Amino acid sequence: MESNWDKLTIEELQKVCDGLIKEAKIKVEVARDLKNECFSKVKMYFAGPWFDEKSKLLMDTVIDIVDILGDYCAYDVYFPMLHKFDTPYEAFKADVRNMCDADISLVFISQKDIGTAFELGYMYNDMINPKNIGFLTYDETCFDKKTNIMLAYAGDFSLAFKDIVEFLTGNYKVAAAPGFSNDWENME
């Protein structure tokens, strides 16, 4: 079964992204008027692919929203795609260090890729500082198609892209990660 992400055009996604950017700008204006700054930010590692046009647009939009929110964002977010290093090994070490330092991680899973799968597995198994792992999906239909068992049971909560602004401002009550039946019908 196809999810809405699979059927989504770049033009449709652009409209959604533009709406979320507008929402973030409104939130900042309201927060400024209320003098409602976030002084203690939670460290977040944001994992996800950015190697195809739709995923990159989604990732760029989340980055833009965090930038727009600035002091009004509840999280100090590390985005691996924003950091450039001289060697791939330096990038790997910096990403691992930031995964270990994070208090929470948000993992975009509507588009699967091997790097994101590694990050999710690493954060799930971090015995020194276990992570509160959230799944970011385009919408709830992401869970309608077959899901890998290693992904299905690794998240603590899930959130749809339409709710990202509310989440980043700390005004969103997250939902538990979707329950998967403990049978093989929808698993891979």
Give the tags:
188 residues, globular, alpha/beta, 43% helix, six-stranded mixed beta sheet
Number of E strands: 6
Query: Helices and strands: which structural class?
Result: alpha/beta
- Based on Cα principal axes, name the global outline: globular
Helix and strand run: HHEHEHEHEHEHE
What's the overall average pLDDT, rounded?
85
Helix share, percent: 40-55%
Biggest sheet strand order reads 2-1-3-4-5-6
How much of the residues is beta strand, in percent?
Answer: 5-15%
CA-to-CA gap between the ends? 13 Å
Number of helices: 7
Radius of gyration: 16 Å
Task: Flag low-confidence runs.
Answer: none
Largest sheet: 6 strands, mixed
Description:
The structure is a single chain. The chain is an alpha/beta fold and 188 residues long. A 6-stranded mixed beta sheet has the order 2-1-3-4-5-6. The protein is 43% helix and 14% strand.
Summarize this entry quickly:
This protein is α/β, with parallel strands linked by helices. The chain has helices at residues 4-7, 10-34, 53-69, 88-101, 114-124, 149-152, 164-168, and strands at 42-47, 75-78, 104-108, 132-137, 157-160, 175-176.
Describe how the helices and strands are arranged.
Blueprint: H1 4-7, H2 10-34, E1 42-47, H3 53-69, E2 75-78, H4 88-101, E3 104-108, H5 114-124, E4 132-137, H6 149-152, E5 157-160, H7 164-168, E6 175-176
Parallel strand pairs: 1-2, 1-3, 3-4, 4-5
Antiparallel strand pairs: 5-6
Helix pairs in contact: 2-3
